[in-house]
Amino acid sequence: MPDNVNLTSQYNADNIELLPELEGIRKRPGMYIGATNSGGLHHLIWEIVDNGVDEAANGYGSRITVTLHKDGSCSVEDDGRGIPVDIHKQTGLPAIQIIYTRLHSGGKFSDKAYQTSAGLHGVGATVVNALSKWVDINVFRDGNIYHIRFENGGHLATPLEVVGTTRKRGTLVRFLPDESLFSTTDFKWETVANHLQEEAFLLKNVTFVLIDERIKKTEEFHYESGLAEYVAILDQNKEPIGEIVHFVDDANHVKMEVAMQWCAKDYNENVYSYANAVRTHDGGTHETGLRTGITKAVNDWAIQNDVIREKDKLEGNDIREGLTAVVSVKVPENLALYESQTKQKLTSPDLLPLITDFVYTNLLHFLAEHKEFAVDLIRKCQASKSAREAARKAKEVARNGKAKKVDAIISDKLASAQSKDYKNNELFIVEGDSAGGSAKTGRDRLHQAILPLRGKPLNTDSVTMERMLQNTEFATIIQTIGAGVGANFDVEDSHYGKIIIMTDADTDGAHIQILLLTFFYNYMKPLITHGMVYIACPPLYRVYKKSDPQHKFIYAWDDESLEEAKKKIGPGYGINRYKGLGEMNADQLAATTMNKATRQLLQVRIEDPLVVEKRISVLMGNDASLRRIWIEENIKFNETDRFIKEVTKNG
Predict the structure, then answer these.
(1) pLDDT top residue among 407 and 180
(2) Does the domain formed by 227-389 have CATH 3.30.230.10?
(3) What are the CA-CA distances from residue 482 to residues 387, 411, 445, 492, 493 (Å)?
(4) Phi, psi of 107, rounded to the nearest 5 degrees
C-alpha cells in the first residue's frame, strides 16, 4: 500500500448514499427479480399474478385474466376483494399507494388477511412499479371504481380517485416495463401460457385466461383434477406403470397435494415442487419429505408382503428411477420460510415430518389396495438396483486395473484432452469435419477435446434404446463421455465438466442442437440438471477496416451488435458474414468461440418442465401438423439467428 494514502479520508459518512426505495430497486433490479433478461421481464407478470392467486387461494376469487397488449404493456385482472383504498392511519395515504410505493408493505405479514400467500415479503407490487414506465390500476370494490396511476419508475401521476360505479369486484393492473432497464421487453406467449397453466394445475377451482392482442389469440386453463392432470401431461409420451397416484390432505393448516406416476423405459427422476403456488426450483423440505415417504412406503410394503427381505432394502434412487412426481404445499405465513426473495427453496423444518408421514401413509395404503401394481413397481426397482450394482462392480474392476484392454479407439476423429482433471475438461461436439479441423488446431490441448460429428444423429425420442445404441454418433458420444447411459449413467464419472455443442448458425445447425439435446435429456439428464451442457455461440459477422483488415476488426453476434461494430470501425468498413463454422480459420474460431476469456456460451437449463415436454413432443414427435404450426408461429426463416434462440432457450 502506498505510504501517502490517508486511510481515514477514504471511507466515511460522506460516502454513504441513502436512495429512495424505488430508486434503489431501479439501480439493483437483479436483487428483486433475479435478472433483467427475459426471465426477469416475465417475473413482473408473476408478481402481479401472485396477488390474484393469493386472493383465489384464500377463497376470494375464481378467475384471473392476463392480457398482452399491442403497445407492449401487460394487464392482470382478478375477481378478488380488490386492493384496499382506504386511508392508512400511520401515513395518511391511501393503502393502495403504500402497497405500490413502499417495500415490505401489504397484508401478508400476518394471517389476518391471508392464511397462505405466494408473496410473503411485500415487495412484488412495489418492484413492478419501480421497473415500469407506467402502472395504471383500477380497483372494483364497495360499488365504486377507484383509479390511481404511477409513471417514470413509480412516481405518483394521478392520485387515487373514484371514476365510476360498478357491480364488479377485484383489481385490474396494467403496466409497461421500462425498456431502459431490460435487455428485452417482448413478452412471450408460450412463457406466459405455461406459467398460467402451471398455476391452474395448482389451483383446481380457478380459471386462468391468457389473451394476446398482438396475435389475436386466447386460451383458458382450468383443471378439475389438479396435479393428476399435470403428471398426465408430463408423462404423455411415456409408458406408464399403473395409474397416477394422487393424494390430497389438510393437516395442521398445511394443505398438501401429491401426484406421482412411474414409467417404464424412463431412467430419470422427475420431481417438481411448489410452495404456496410458487415453483421451488431448488426443492426444500417438502421435496425431502416426499422422497423419504416414498422410499419408506415402498420398502415397508415389499418387506411386509415378503417380496424382499429386510437386508435387501431398496435405495431411494432405485425406487425413484422413472418416477414423475409433483408435490404442492400451501403453508401458513408463520411456517413459510425460504432461502431468498425469489423463493427458490423452501426451508421450513416443521414441514418435513408432516409431508413424510402424509406421503408414507397414503402411498402404503395405495400399494395395499393395488397389489399387482405394487409387485410390478418392486420388480422395476429391483431391476434398477441390479443394473446399478453391476455398473458399480464394473467401475471397481476398471479402477483396479483388471478390466480387459479395449482395442478399439473410441473414435478415430476424437482429439482427446491431455489432462486427467476431468472437471476442468471440455468436450466440443462439432458439426462437420471442416469446423472440426479448425477447432482441433485452435483448441487448448490440455483441457479441450474435439469430437466432429459424421452426420446428423438420430431422433432419440422416436426410437428404442437398442436402436439408439446402434447409432455410430451416439455410441461414440457415450464412450467419449465415459459415464454410462440411461439407468447406468453416473454424472460423477463424466470425463468432462462441460459438454459444448458447437454447430453452424443456421437451420441445419439448430436441428443438430435439438437432436443432441433430446438425447442428453432422455439418456444423460443429470448433465443438464448439473449445468454441464452448453451451446457455443459463434459470431455471425466480422466487421473490419478495409484499409487495415487484419488489425482493425470487431466480431458481432447479432444485428444489434453489428450496427455498433460498424459505428466503431467507422467509414470504409467491410463485413464478413459467417454462414458456417468452417468459414472461420483456427485462430478466429478459437478467439470467438473456444477461448474461455472471450467466448460466449449458452447454458442449457430446465426451468419449466412443461415447456420441455411440450417442445420435445412437438418438435421431435410424429405429428408433423403440430410441428408445422409451432414453426409458423415461432420462426422467421429470414432470421436464422432467431431460429437458434427460439429452439434452444428452454433446454
Answers:
(1) 180
(2) yes
(3) 17, 13, 19, 10, 7
(4) -105, 25
Contacting residues for 595 by C-beta, under 8 A, at least 6 apart: none
> Catalytic: 508?
yes
Query: What crossing angle do the helices spanning 38-57 and 189-202 adopt, rounded to 10°?
Result: 30
* 503 in Cβ contact with 455 (< 8 Å): no
Q: Is 431 among the residues known to form the active site?
A: yes
Q: Is the dihedral of CA 631, 635, 641, 642 positive or negative?
A: negative
**Dist CA 358 CA 368 (whole Å):** 16
Of 504, 608, 613, 646, catalytic: 504
- In the chain, the amino acid numbered 157 is A
Given 431, 473, 608, 613, which residue is catalytic? 431
Q: What are phi and psi of 441, to 5 degrees?
A: -70, -40
| Candidate list 21, 220, 249, 508, residue with the active-site label | 508
Domain ranges of the chain: 21-221, 227-389, 422-538+600-648, 541-577
pTM: 0.73
Active-site hit among 506, 558, 607, 641: 506
Whether 85 contacts 96, CB under 8 Å: yes
Coil/strand/helix, residue 123: coil
- Interatomic CA distance for residues 207 and 205, integer angstroms: 7
Q: Is 69 helix (H, G, I), strand (E, B) or coil?
A: coil
Ranges of H-type helices in 400-504: 433-442, 465-470, 472-481
d(CA 563, CA 545): 14
pLDDT, one tens digit per residue, over 18-44 is 446 788 888 888 888 888 898 899 999
Distance, in Å, from the CA atom of 584 to the CA atom of 149, rounded to the nearest integer, reads 54
Question: Rounded to whole angstroms, how far apart are CA atoms 316 and 192?
Answer: 35
The CATH number of the structural domain formed by 21-221 is 3.30.565.10
CATH class of 422-538+600-648: alpha beta
- The span from the CA of 358 to the CA of 256, in Å, is 8
> Hey, which bits of 486-592 come out as E strands?
498-502, 533-536, 541-545, 553-556, 573-577
- Contacts of 155 by beta carbon, 8 Å cutoff, 6+ apart: 22
Chain segment 527-559, per-residue pLDDT in tens = 999 999 999 999 989 999 888 877 789 999 888
Tracing cell 461436439 back to the chain, one arrives at 429
pLDDT of residue 266: 81
Euclidean distance between CA atoms 132 and 41, whole angstroms: 10
Question: Integer distance in angstroms from the first to the last C-alpha of the chain?
Answer: 48
Q: Calculate what percentage of the chain has a pLDDT beyond 90.
A: 46
Residues 6 or more apart whose CB falls under 8 angstroms from that of 625 comprise none
Listed in sequence order, the DSSP H helices in 11-106 are 21-27, 30-33, 38-57, 95-101
Is 506 one of the annotated active-site residues of the chain?
Answer: yes
The DSSP symbol for 71 reads T
